[in-house]
Here is the input.
Amino acid sequence: QVQLVESGGGLVQAGGSLRLSCAASGSIDSINSMGWYRQAPGKQRELVAVITSGGRTNYADSVKGRFTISRDNAKNTVDLQMNSLKPEDTGVYYCCVWLGSKAYWGQGTQVTVSS
Here is the structure.
């Protein structure tokens, strides 16, 4: 059993910054990739950013240059630094980690960007 606990969401004005954090615990042998997804109202969940165990990163085009994903392998944590936030970044952000081919999801944290 793997538990993911997210923190750091909230309300921010456009142009502001937020930092999301996710900590994994439980029956963890080795984590492969870790990532963040988001779901806006009425839309499908979409990938925001992912980072491999070796540190390679991939970002959605819409957040490149504004968001930075990082991880601490010793602590099993993954963070998402979000700068220059836009109203279209509003949504529920979910942490996701892969152990082998199995994905585990956090409960989600709300990010609201006001114009």
Remarks:
- The chain has a mean pLDDT of 95.
- The radius of gyration is 13 Å.
- The CA atoms of residues 26 and 56 lie 25 Å apart.
